[in-house]
Amino acid sequence: MQEIYLDHAATTPVHPEVLEAMLPYYRDMHGNPSSMHRFGQRVRHTVDEARSIIARCVNAEPGEIIFTSGGTEADNMALIGVMTANRDKGKHLITSQIEHHAVLHTCEYLESLGYEVTYLPVDETGRVAVEDVAQAIRPDTVMISIMFGNNEVGTLQHIGKIGKLAKERGVYFHTDAVQAFGIEEVDVKRLHVDLLSISAHKVNGPKGVGSLYARRGIKIASYIHGGNQEKKRRAGTENVAGIVGFARAAELAINTREERRAHYEKLRRMMMAVWDEQSVDYVVNGHPKFYMPHILNVSFPGTKTEAMLMKLDIAGVAAASGSACMSGSLEISHVLRAMNLPEDRLISAIRFSFGYGNTEEQVREAAERIARIVNKG
Ligand SMILES: *Cc1c(COP(=O)(O)O)cnc(C)c1O
Predict the structure, then answer these.
(1) pTM higher than the cut 0.90
(2) Shortest CA distance to 138 belongs to which of 160, 118, 159, 121?
(3) Of 34, 97, 136, 343, which one is least surrounded by beta carbons within 10 A?
(4) What is the CB < 6 Å shell around ligand 1?
(5) Is 325 an annotated catalytic residue?
(6) CATH fold of 16-255, please?
(7) Residues 70-104: tens digit of each pLDDT
(8) Could you tell me where in the chain the CATH 3.40.640.10 domains are found?
(9) How confident is the model over 3-7, as a mean pLDDT?
(10) Phi/psi zone of residue 122: left (φ > 0), alpha (ψ -120 to 50 degrees), beta?
(11) How remote is the CA of residue 148 from the centroid of ligand 1, in Å?
(12) What residue ranges carry the coiled-coil annotation (predicted)?
């Protein structure tokens, strides 16, 4: 039986070109970028190049990119770094109820330190209303953190409008673009974004590396102390091979963005067409128009998420219930809960997410296996 991986929102396979680019840094180029000698300087140059590539991918300057251990650390750094460095401005932070736990749990941590957080609601499509953001801004609001595109249902937020609003009101704007990067156009200048998180392993790069863009001039406290790496904003010897792989993956993702988008759009339509043919009872969760095409979240009323995922796994189809961090637990997704979906949709939701390696044949086959399982009840 062919195994079919439809869980790319959780993580993606490393692209062969990415692995190829990384190998020399495990084999021969072992220097420490902070060393004065040529072994170090060669590697320093590589890290600088990678920084320029990542900067270009989001339309930032190289000095505005801080390499991190991934999306989670970038989110932590943005929130904790900015809130603690700007205590003189206030203690209030605005976010949404549908953020990734890397943001939500960091907000809870900040609350435990005495900061105040407003968690904005979303509508039934998973969107935050810009007016709600405007109304939540107080004189002591320091920053807004609203994700670019949601990792569970794929819904896109009004990033440009929120960015403009934040700028007008003198509030910093952070967006978790981990899931949107490589799918949507991510331009920090055009969208008025001050801080932005991305992660390599969601775009066919290696796990354990990502970056935070922090606009020049933003006060951000470092919370990993040690050497002078990353302009003292994040100490520790650089993950050189990871950074090289990240840059190659990001470049590939940007260069193939349009064709992959079209491919994912085709795959999701095909999947639904198969279900329609087989009279499968399903309903799509998320926004009908403003969505990322690689994520398809559907409820199969009458089924239960956990049992379905188990049956799908036995049938060789890998999918998820929402965020990977939640799998294995029976808890209802906080995202679907915030969208106020009826109970039968909450308990029967499954997320399918596509990647560049998925073929039409694979997805048709998966859709048919799913149809058989759902229709058998
Ligand atoms: C995967 C993901 C993260 C976490 O990134 P890691 O690199 O796995 O730490 C954060 N936010 C979103 C939206 C994600 O999809």
Answers:
(1) yes
(2) 118
(3) 343
(4) 70-72, 75, 100, 102, 147, 151, 176, 178-179, 199, 201-202, 210
(5) yes
(6) Aspartate Aminotransferase; domain 2 (3.40.640)
(7) 999 999 999 999 999 999 999 999 999 999 999 99
(8) 16-255
(9) 98
(10) beta
(11) 12
(12) none
